[in-house]
Amino acid sequence: MGGLMVVWRARPRWWLACGLALGLVGCSPGQAGDPEPSPTAATTTASAPVSSPASSPAATGSPAPEAAPALATLYGDGHDENIGHARIDVIGLERTTPTSVTARFRVTADRRPVRLGQFHSYDLAGQNAYDYIQAFSGFFLLDDARFAVYHPMKRDDVEVRARCLCSYSEVSATLEPGQSATLWAVYHVPPETTSVAVGFHGAGLTPPLPISPAGTGPKVDGEPDAAVIEAAYPNTTQLVTRTSGTTVSVAESGTRVEIALNTDVLFEFDKATLTGKAKEELRRAADRIGTEAKGTVKIVGHTDDVGTEAYNLRLSVRRAEAVRKALRSLVRNPGVSFTAEGKGETQPAVKGTSERARARNRRVEVIFEREVPAPSPRPTPSSAPSAEPAATDPGTPLATARGVRRLTGLNAELLELRRISRRGLIATFSLSHASGGEVRLAEGAIDRDAEEIGVITGFHTEFFWVALTGPDGTRYLPLTTPGDDPGSPRHCVCSVTTLKSLGPGRRVRLWVLMTAPPEEVTTVDVNLFGFTPMKGVRIAA
Description:
six-stranded antiparallel sheet
């Protein structure tokens, strides 16, 4: 369909949503603390310098036209003093080599100055992945078919402080209101991928956008040639879906599955003999192993912290061995082998000593690598994006909530809950200060809901403190990067905020990609940690 720009006229006028070529998917702008900003009507060429790093090979190209139509538009979150008031137009996604895509952007300052050197990556791309803060490395491409996120390619084969294959800006490069600049970044993208969504932690996510063939778009100044691209290194992050139920929790990526079985269902207290109730859960796990697993299936037992470490270790080993024997008898796949080990209380799934936390820590994990068929390519949209999106009114928020405990004084509006694929959906919230003194946003990350529902990352600057609950009680958690064990650092695909607190008159927009429930589930309860529940919210298709 044609382009779409949404202006939230039914709400306070500070809120502006995306101009999207293919539909709205959670990239609405917000201006924190600014009650009535308006979109920039026109752009001018920026005087701020943009360059490649001095140590990089020379790149060729010419400036992209300022009038290039946008495939999609993202807006800054409104609170970041450096980039919060930016309008970001995606003006090109071109397959410049068989295995790479060059993304081109037009950044415009809206109402307040924008510092070009602040569009850098955060830890989703790898901690300190790129060399300079002024690298234009923060934008990522989401490939739903492969359930992967592509970050800008690296000129160096190193884990940290690599030179980015992207635009670099001078440290002081600043756009004044109405000024714009064009920038670029190159990504390693498999040849079969025909569309990707574009995201940025300080703005949101576009819908899937078509990748155009080589030579279909004008180059931006400084873009590398094919030889430079082919000598660079990919930076790809696999994503993991996470669900948590009363009897089983599952984390799965495109290549790996981790099934955590609740031992309170599998075993009697302090025993290692399987109960009659265990058969159904083990049968479900065996069915998945039989159809998906390859190589070795690892069975790992865990206990809570009640009792001595030595006793808990022995109990976890015995329970893991009981599950191994049962699954071995149920799985008829001759190409799969099984191992069993115990970790005792050394790797808790969640922190805390409450009965609920201890119940989650008593588990047996079934872990295996999976056989994954090659994804079929998405059809490329046939219609071109509109250069002048129409405006429409989305109406009132889907649901509202008020802060409790240490978040008392804040209000929350759920602006969007929308499927972006079979496995993921996007949730977008507006938090505003309603009364009292300043409220620390980090309180949501450490609220008691975090212990009850479960925390998937310990990084308090990331907006992970959301869970969705289906009609059967299953909880759907944010998408994350993988972790080898419960203690491994994980990151969500979400807002990363530098805002520490909200005071009177302030507002912030936050977004997060969530694990999607099955398609037959059309309504969920939305649990924003530290807020009253939002009941029976309908998921947009």
